[in-house]
Design goal:
Elements (H helix, E strand, L loop, with lengths): L1 H39 L10 H9 L6 H12 L1 H4 L18 H10 L14 H13 L4
The structure holds heme C.
Length: 141
């Protein structure tokens, strides 16, 4: 009788071992899956600033210079066609313009028929000079 009892005990302890083993390996599998998920899941990247705002920033000249005055005038009179960053919109990009100051001055004062309004009546010579200084400050980067 005693030997049968031992046998039963042995069997049940084997079963318990099997259950424990099963549970442990199950947990390990969950753990591995979780770890893999951690590795594979891409980390949230901070959104890069849109290039347009960077370009706009680079078009803003230092304060208290003719270029800065020109930039203010540009935002009021020209930006809706040439873009806030002077990179062009309806009007062309003004970066790296090769025309002479006299030619630019004439374009601003007299306009371009059917393309660009004339500003001769609205802007003073100082204003036009400031606008040219601003256009010249635009680096063709
Ligand atoms: C109504 C839209 C409009 C406004 C406002 C405007 N422009 Fe223009 N501008 C144009 C267009 C369009 C052209 C191109 C015309 C062409 O190529 O025939 C142009 C051409 C020019 C050019 C010659 C560019 C080149 O490479 O030949 C200069 C310089 C210029 N604009 C400066 C200015 C300035 C400075 C102001 C503000 C005082 C201004 N524009 C306002 C539309 C505009």
């Amino acid at each position: 009788m005693k030997s049968l009892e031992t046998l039963v005990n042995m069997r049940s302890s084997l079963e318990i071992k099997a259950i424990i083993l099963g549970t442990v390996s199950g947990l390990a599998a969950v753990g591995i899956a979780f770890a893999a998920g951690e590795i594979i899941r891409p980390k949230a990247q901070p959104q890069p600033r849109p290039p347009s705002s960077l370009a706009e920033k680079s078009a803003i000249p230092p304060a208290d210079t003719p270029e800065q005055q020109g930039y203010s005038l540009f935002l009021l009179n020209c930006a809706h066609c040439h873009g806030n960053d002077a990179r062009g919109d309806e009007g062309p990009d003004l970066h790296g313009i090769t025309k002479s100051d006299a030619r630019i001055s004439s374009i601003i004062k007299n306009g371009i028929k059917g393309e660009m309004p004339k500003f001769g009546a609205k802007l003073t010579d100082t204003d036009v000079a400031a606008l040219i200084a601003f256009v010249r400050s635009l680096k063709d980067s």
